[in-house]
Design goal:
It is a single chain. It contains 22 helices and 12 strands. The chain is α/β, with parallel strands linked by helices. Among the domains are: 82 residues, Arginyl tRNA synthetase N-terminal domain (Gyrase A, domain 2); 79 residues, no CATH class; 171 residues, Isoleucyl-tRNA Synthetase, Domain 1 (Orthogonal Bundle), CATH 1.10.730.10. Helix 15 crosses helix 16. The longest helix has 25 residues. It starts with a helix and ends in a 10-residue tail after the last helix.
Length: 561
């Protein structure tokens, strides 16, 4: 629709002399198709043209002609445009077929770099449901930006530093073994960590031992460093299993520890600029004038905190990647933290402070205790995925027992169902996760979307070749083409609003329109050869658009279900 809006704006520009881009941005989508496919609210022009909106609408409608527009009508102060069906068939459809996997993409980000910080679990602890948001929102934002031509750098800022590693080292030496860790992986590390806390309740000296071991680690003790690196390696190996299921790869796994030697420079800059204040031995930046609590930089014992590391990391990333935008995807509970250190970066004089963007998201909870694991109240993501995959496999056993690669398809649908369910609403909303709802094949769900994609693939496999002819004969075809034409705009909106759910909701719109078309318009059984060819071509366009949209929300495509 972008091209059509620009065409309309160019014609209107000749009448009223207002900038074409500005006019195009004013054009809206009416809430009811009876009021047109596009609409210009002339209220926005009233003051500038010094005329009443109905008068402006009537004046612009007189003699209006534009490629792609069948006719115009006025309704009060609105000028409503009705799209030419032949334009949809000959322009939009051909464009989708020609561009295929690139349809919806753009070069708006050409020459620009975006750094994205997301997922970032704490080492030696397994993925749980709380990590799902940062992981899938973050990766979706990466895919969206790449689709728009940005160079993207994805960073997994691992929580790989802190006194917990002193505890783990003590626990390993007292109760662990290399064989146990190699066999049990991250679960064995968790078990050691839990045992440390149990034992430390009875023996308080263990906490002192842990602090001692972490201090040794900070000073480069070879034995402790070797254990620490081993724990990280085991953890990443476990995380990558989940990332593989989601189709996610990272460009960098540089965690908190990487910035240890990069913090002193930033602390010195804070001192030189007179920003550091002392309060009970601690060093902080006073942000009272910005209606924020102080940003703590150093504890009273001189040790650093999260803001210190984040500032050092941001400076390193700017120097290394020269980003045009740095995106941080974390829970809404960390909003103050990011606001504080973003402000500190600005006060330090870094001109790129306004390129730092925090993307918050709401909390997630799960109904029922049946999903609880041996780790207590924490729901492990691998367990949730496994349950979803098993349930999908059972459904497929009933519906299509002969399906080839059933395990692979069950994983794609099961994992996709969870991702889709999570991304279906605005990221800032809290989510109450109900697995049965997510796995429903009939609702606005991932399985429904993947089943629709598989249906399109099946039609194309049976239908064979299609021609270049364009012959719209049904309202359902027109409605479907209009939905397909909106994809580039939906991508642009999802990027500008940092909202993957715009794509998820759009997918449902496409599926709904396609299934209505499928049920009401014979495709393979159409008697007229031109109509049959056109409908197969339209189905191919649906496959392209759904496939492209799936890629943007971490959901795999399934040719068969």
């Amino acid at each position: 629709m972008h091209n059509l809006k620009n065409n309309i704006a160019a014609v209107l520009n000749l009448s009223i002399g207002i900038d074409t881009h500005e006019l195009a941005s004013m054009i809206e989508y009416p809430p009811d198709s009876k009021l047109g496919d596009l609409s210009l609210p002339c209220f926005k022009l009233s003051r500038r043209l010094k005329a009443a909106p109905p008068s402006i609408a009537a004046s612009l409608a007189a003699g209006f002609e534009c490629e792609g527009i069948d006719h115009v009508e006025t309704a009060g102060g609105y000028l409503n445009f009705y799209i030419d069906k032949n334009y949809l068939a000959g322009n939009v459809l051909d464009k989708i077929i020609k561009q295929g996997e690139s349809y919806g993409s753009s070069d708006m980000g050409k020459g620009k770099t975006v750094v994205l910080d997301y997922s970032s679990p704490n080492v030696a602890k397994p993925f749980h449901i709380g990590h799902l948001g940062t992981t899938v929102i973050g990766h979706s934002l990466r895919m969206l930006h790449e689709f728009a031509g940005f160079k993207c750098v994805s960073i997994n800022h691992l929580g790989d530093w802190g006194t917990q590693f002193g505890k783990l080292i003590v626990a390993y030496r007292k109760w662990g073994s290399a064989q146990d860790i190699e066999t049990g992986g991250i679960d064995a590390l968790v078990a050691l960590y839990v045992r440390f806390h149990e034992e430390s309740q009875k023996n308080k000296s263990l906490e002192d031992e842990a602090r001692t071991e972490f201090t040794k680690l900070e000073h480069g003790d070879q034995s402790n460093t070797a254990l620490w690196k081993w724990f990280i390696e085991i953890s990443i190996t476990e995380y990558q299993k989940t990332y593989k299921q989601l189709g996610i790869e990272f460009d960098s796994y540089k965690g908190e520890s990487f910035y240890t030697d990069k913090m002193p420079e930033q602390i010195e800059i804070l001192r030189e600029k007179g920003l550091l204040k002392t309060d009970n031995g601690a060093s902080l930046v006073n942000l009272e004038q910005f209606n924020m609590a102080p940003c703590l930089i150093l504890k009273s014992d001189g040790s650093t905190l999260y803001p210190t590391r984040d500032i050092a990391a941001a400076v390193y990333r700017k120097r290394t990647y020269n980003f045009d935008k740095a995106i941080y995807v974390t829970s809404a509970g960390q909003s103050l933290h990011f606001a504080q250190w973003f402000k500190v970066v600005e006060l330090m004089g870094y001109q790129w402070a306004d390129q730092l963007v925090h993307i918050p998201y709401g909390t997630v909870s799960i109904d029922g205790s049946k999903l609880a694991t041996r780790t207590g109240n924490v729901i492990l993501l691998r367990d949730l995925f496994a349950m979803a995959i098993d349930k999908v496999s059972e459904i497929m056993e009933e519906k299509n027992a002969e399906l080839q690669n059933r395990e692979e398809v069950a994983e794609a649908v099961g994992v996709g169902a969870i991702v889709f369910h999570y991304l279906y609403n605005s990221r800032i909303k809290d989510i109450n996760f109900v697995l049965d709802d997510a796995l429903n094949f009939d609702g606005n769900t991932g399985p429904y979307a993947q089943y629709t994609y598989a249906r399109a693939c099946s039609i194309l496999q049976k239908g064979g070749e299609y021609g270049d002819g364009a012959k719209i004969t049904a309202d359902e075809e027109t409605a479907l083409l209009k939905i397909l034409s909106l994809f580039p705009e939906r991508v642009e909106s999802a990027i500008s609003e940092y909202e993957p759910y715009i794509i998820t909701r759009y997918i449902i719109d496409v599926c709904t329109a396609f299934n209505r078309f499928y049920h009401d318009c014979p495709i393979l059984s159409a008697k007229d050869g031109d109509i049959r060819s056109f409908r197969i071509k339209l189905t191919a366009a649906v496959k392209h658009v759904l496939g492209n949209a799936f890629n943007l929300i971490c959901m795999r495509k399934t040719d068969r279900i």
